[in-house]
Design a protein that fits this description.
With 232 residues, this protein is of the alpha/beta class. The chain is built from 9 helices and 7 strands. Helix 9 links the parallel strand 6 and strand 7. The protein is globular and about 50 Å long.
Length: 232
């Protein structure tokens, strides 16, 4: 019976090949979403081992952040961009869960991240959420929660304004575009908590900064940040 199932699986993969979401090569047995080559060769940052990494420095003097981290470097036209396009626009929500698991395994090695109480994804506006069907940052948060001893809060941080795309805006224009976009529905739930705020890609950090400003109004709250990728 096992041999029959193996032959059947091989036949299905021949007719409907499963492709790596990063490099588009055929996946083989026991590979899931990412091929073994990409799993080990995508550009990891190892920022969990570098307290003063470039993402953390983006928030110096702007937000009181305990620690900041990105899993991968984002290179335009590279495999990370291919994977993120599949994740955000082709309905492949499972990519976020997988990358959250990978990131969570790294963050277990960091005492600060490992002490987070609540994981909060950067929210989409309800209109954008309806169009896409899911929040990619929430998928990443779910994968992180599988590894870290922290709960997810999906509806406390709220995006109240549907902003236009940030692409091609300067850092100042991006920050201005994000002013008063977010609010906290139940601040009492987060008093004294260590929050891990997560997003998919960080560039200038303006969206995360706008979220962080609102969160840090809550008494006793500590803030850390994690993203899937860092783009220069």
């Amino acid at each position: 019976m096992l041999l029959l199932r193996t032959y059947l699986a091989d036949f299905v993969s021949l007719i409907f090949p499963q492709l790596c979401v990063a490099c588009s090569e055929n996946l083989i047995a026991n590979e899931h979403l990412l091929c073994t080559g990409c799993l080990y060769n995508l550009p990891l940052t190892n920022f969990h081992l570098q307290p003063d990494n470039i993402v953390a420095r983006q928030f110096w003097g702007k937000l009181q952040v305990e620690a900041a981290y990105s899993l991968y470097y984002f290179n335009k036209g590279g495999n990370i961009q291919n994977m993120m396009h599949q994740f955000k626009y082709n309905g492949m929500q499972r990519i976020g869960n997988l990358l959250g698991n990978i990131a969570g395994q790294q963050l277990l090695q960091n005492e600060i991240f490992n002490s987070a109480d609540v994981i909060i994804p950067v929210p989409l506006h309800k209109k954008r959420l309806k169009e896409r069907g899911y929040n990619q940052s929430a998928s990443f948060a779910e994968g992180l929660a599988d590894k870290l001893n922290a709960r997810i809060d999906l509806d406390n941080l709220v995006r109240t304004v549907a902003t236009k795309t940030q692409t091609h805006k300067s850092r100042f224009a991006r920050f201005e575009n994000m002013k008063e976009v977010f609010s906290i529905a139940r601040p009492e739930d987060l008093k004294g908590k260590h929050i891990l705020l997560v997003d998919d890609i960080v560039t200038t950090g303006s969206t995360l900064e706008a979220c962080g400003i609102e969160l840090l109004k809550i008494p006793g709250l500590k803030l850390s940040i994690a993203t899937i990728a860092y783009a220069e």
